[in-house]
Structure formats: structure tokens, C-alpha cells
Amino acid sequence: MLADDFAADCYWTRDAPLPEAPDAPLPAAVDVAIVGAGYTGLAAARETALAGRRTLLLDAGPIGGGCSARNGGQVAFSLKPSLATLAARHGAATAARLYGEGFEAVDALRSLARDEQLDCDWREVGCFVGAHTPRHFGALVREAETQPEGLAMRYEVVPRARQREVVDTARYHGGVLYPGDAAVHPARLVRALHARAVAAGAECRDHTEVHGLARSAQGFELATARGRLRAREVLIATNGYTGRFAPWFRRRLLPIGSYIIATEALEPAQVARLIVAGRNVGDTRRVVVYYRPSPDGRRILFGGRAAARETDAARCVPRLRAMLADIFPELARVRVSAAWMGFVGFTFDTMPHFGVRDGIHYSLGYCGQGVPSATYYGRKIGLKIAGRPGHETALDGLPFPSRPFYTGNPWFLPWAIAGYRLRDRLGV
Ligand SMILES: Cc1cc2nc3c(=O)[nH]c(=O)nc-3n(C[C@H](O)[C@H](O)[C@H](O)COP(=O)(O)OP(=O)(O)OC[C@H]3O[C@@H](n4cnc5c(N)ncnc54)[C@H](O)[C@@H]3O)c2cc1C
User: Fold this and answer.
1) Would the CB of 130 count as within 6 Å of ligand 1?
2) Ligand 1 pocket residue status of 65, Cβ below 6 Å
3) Cα of 149 to ligand 1 centre, how many Å?
4) End-to-end CA distance of the chain
5) Rounded to the nearest whole angstrom, what is the distance from the C-alpha of residue 150 to the centroid of ligand 1?
6) pLDDT in tens, 276-335
7) How many CB atoms are located within 10 Å of the residue 180 CB?
């Protein structure tokens, strides 16, 4: 089952190693301390540094070593709730602005990649969403056809009879293709955002966990693995990795593991037949799966929720491989070259959250869709800290819900997942 070159590590960093930060002592004081050096922190750091604020990014692990270098690299419209749900919660005007920002986030990344030549292997490959049941096909088509006016994505309905033109499987009952969706190389995106932040003057320290955060006369005092530090402003950009140093935020985030495998190198012609035109693919199951070819077109990267409880990535190989073979039976004996996982930051209202709480800035909770939105809201929170125009967002001031007795450990997840799997099996 395992290829000779198998490693339980992230495929993306094999050809794009994560940037290294200087192994230097901390400055005594900075203007802005950013906790977490993923897309959010990196995008924010560039803006605060450009505005002349001494900015220090701190990460407990390597730069980008959270979700940002280990995701599926799929770029799509990034709001989970429907417009109607948002309108019921926040009113029609806010809902429309929120929806608009979902599109802007994708456009902003497109423009960075195309116009500013951000080296992230941007490809406009589109995304096919396969219907798990005939009923799901009907719902997918209805959803595409009834998109709100002025806020609609281009789409193409692919009936089952034409499905193999898009993805060579009998598993789905047709689906909908969204041609405007894109793919990036996640670790190259980290490298490119890091290079921009450093070029703007931001400093970084990796392997420097922040384990304490307290108010002080001039702002905040941070206790870190490299000693103490004062900062006028602090940004929490720790998403699904938010720990005990920030309990108010931890109580509002659900860290949920997502697991990916990369197959061994296959014949490029086989990969191009199975997933036509290098597209992203997902389906309508509640326990989500997502897959795409590797940028060199030789492997399939296949991700999803492989276990009821969190575990290490290598243990998920048999399950993920079986899920892949369920879609492409000819891959039943494929060997696996890499397996890895990361903690996605979900929230109770399946919305990202952005703002200031007790003087602490935050941008968090992208619910598995942070490639465009963490980059987008990261930049905005950086502008906000710097007091520069362009930081306004419809997320500002929205309530950030928690649940009674929840402290940051989603102990109920195995039961929820079992329920979702049962519904998937029953096709409801
Ligand atoms: C397997 C997987 C697949 C995914 N696929 C996609 C996809 O295809 N498309 C998409 O849009 N999104 C996807 N996502 C989600 C996306 O990767 C995230 O939403 C995005 O990377 C979040 O970026 P971030 O900077 O907010 O957080 P992260 O990149 O997770 O960074 C948070 C950082 O905070 C650091 N940190 C935490 N606590 C501390 C502390 N106390 N001190 C210092 N540092 C700390 C962590 O070490 C980490 O590096 C996926 C996620 C996973 C795990």
C-alpha cells in the first residue's frame, strides 16, 4: 500500500520547503506582534510593516506549518451559509456584503497571482462538484440555477451521461462544474506571502510558541518560548491551532482534522483521463472529500475526513485509499507516497470572524476555505491595525458565538461524524 518513497509528511513541502526565520533573540518591544504565521499572519504582517509599524510574526512551528502549507490548494467562493441564511441572521444588506466579499477574496488572490506575479502556481482549472445521489443532483442544479442576481458564479450542469468528460467515474449522479474556481500550490503561496512580508520589513521567528498574553501599560506583554516581548498591538492568527493562551478565542473555534494522501507517481495520461483538465473535485457528501491532480499531473491528492477521532495521518492511509478506490476502482491497488493532516478552524456559525476583542485583533475561522479568505481577511486586518483605508468588512462587529461549557475540545465530533456518515450512506 505504501510506495518506496512514502513519508508521513506533506507532499507540498517536498518541492517548496517552508521558509526559515532567523534563529535570533526577540526584540524587547515591537509595534505589532502577530501570533501565527500562516496566510492570515503573513498577509497582515506585510500591511503593518508597509505602514512603518515594527512587526514581528511568531509561530510555534515552522512558518506556514499550520494549515497554510498543507491544504488541498483549492480556491473557491468561500462562504458556507446561503444568502438566505445570512439574511435571516444579519439582514439583507449585510448578507449581500458578506456574499460579495466571498467573491472579492477569490478575485483578490487571482489579481495577486496574475497581476503581481505571486509565485503560487495559480491555475484556473475549475471545480466539479459530483452528486452523491440523484436527489443531490437535483439540489445542486437548483442551487446553481437560483444563485442571487449579481452574485452568481458561472456554472455548467454536467448530467450523468456526460460525467466522464469531466471525471472518469460512475460514482456520481452527474454534477455541476464551476469553471471560475482555481488551484494553487499551497506551500509556494506561503513562500510568496512570506517573501512579501519580509520585503516590506516584517520580522519572523519560527518555533517560538506564545504561551501567555497579558495587558500592560503600553499594550500587551507576550510570554514566548524565546522570552518575553512587549507589543502595542497583537493579532491572533492561529485559526484551528488556537491554544490556551487565548481562551476566549479557543472557546469559539472547533479544530477539526482534515487528512490527505498523495498517490505514487502515475502515468500522466491516466491522471488526465481520471480528472480531466486538472480540475478540483468535491462531492455532496456531508463527510466531505476533495481531490485534484498534483501540479506535475502525475499524482492524485485526495483528502477528507478519514477517522471518527483525530489520529495520525499515516493511520488514515487505508481508509483514504479505499475512499479513492470507491471513486476510481482502477486505483484499488495504487500505492501511497505521502500522508498528512492539519486542523481546520471551524466556527459554530460556519462563518469566519474578524475584529477586536479586549484590544486584541483577530481574523479566524475560515471553515476549511481559507486559501482565498485567510489571505483576503489577513490583509484587511493588517490594514485595520495600521489604520489604513480598505480594512472595512461586513464581518466587523458580527457576534462570534460559542456554546455553553465548550472550552475548545470538540469532544462531540465522533458522534456528529457518525451521524453524517449514516446520512451519507442512506443518501439523505
Ligand atoms: C488538510 C487541509 C486541507 C485544506 N484544503 C483547503 C482547500 O483546498 N481550500 C481552502 O480554501 N482551504 C483549505 N484548507 C483550509 C486552509 O488551509 C486554512 O483555512 C488556512 O490555511 C488558514 O490560514 P491561517 O493563517 O488562518 O491559519 P494556519 O495556516 O493554520 O496558521 C496558524 C498558525 O498559528 C500557529 N500557532 C498556533 N498557536 C500558536 C502559538 N501559541 N504561538 C505561536 N504560533 C501559534 C500555528 O503553528 C500555525 O502555523 C485546508 C486545511 C487543511 C488542514
Assistant:
1) no
2) yes
3) 32
4) 33
5) 31
6) 999 999 999 988 899 999 999 999 999 998 888 888 999 999 999 999 999 999 999 999
7) 17
pLDDT band at residue 422, thresholds of 50, 70 and 90?
confident
Average pLDDT over residues 387-416: 93
347 lines ligand 1 (CB under 6 A): no
Task: Find out whether the beta carbon of 365 lies less than 6 Å from any atom of ligand 1.
Answer: no
Q: What is the reported pLDDT for 339? A: 98
CB 380 within 8 A of CB 354: yes
* 146-176 pLDDT tens trace: 998 888 999 999 999 999 999 999 999 999 9
DSSP secondary structure string for all residues of 55-77 = EEEE-SSSTTTTTTTSS--EE--
The C-alpha atoms of residue 240 and residue 255 are separated, in whole angstroms, by 5
Task: Tell whether ligand 1 has an atom less than 6 A from the beta carbon of residue 271.
Answer: no
| Residue 170 CA, ligand 1 centroid: distance in Å | 34
Residue nearest to atom 49 of ligand 1 (CA): 66
From residue 395, alpha-carbon distances to 93, 96, 239, 255, 368 in Å are: 12, 12, 16, 21, 17
Pick from 12, 56, 71 the residue to mutate for probing ligand 1's pocket: most ligand atoms within 8 Å of its CB.
Answer: 71
CA distance 209 to 275: 41
Residue whose C-alpha cell reads 478519514 in the numeric block: 306
Q: Is the pLDDT of residue 60 over 80?
A: yes
Ligand 1 pocket check for 73: Cβ under 6 Å: yes
- Residues near 281 by Cβ (< 8 Å), separated by ≥ 6? 127, 128, 129, 130, 167, 275, 290, 291, 292
Alpha-carbon dihedral 347, 351, 354, 358, rounded to 10 degrees: -40
What pLDDT does 94 receive? Answer: 95
Residue 282: CB within 6 Å of ligand 1? no
Please give the distance, rounded to the nearest whole angstrom, from the Cα atom of residue 59 to the centre of ligand 1: 12
If you average pLDDT over residues 196-213, what whole number do you get? 98
CA of 38 to the centre of ligand 1 (A): 6
Contact of 229 with 222, CB cutoff 8 Å: yes
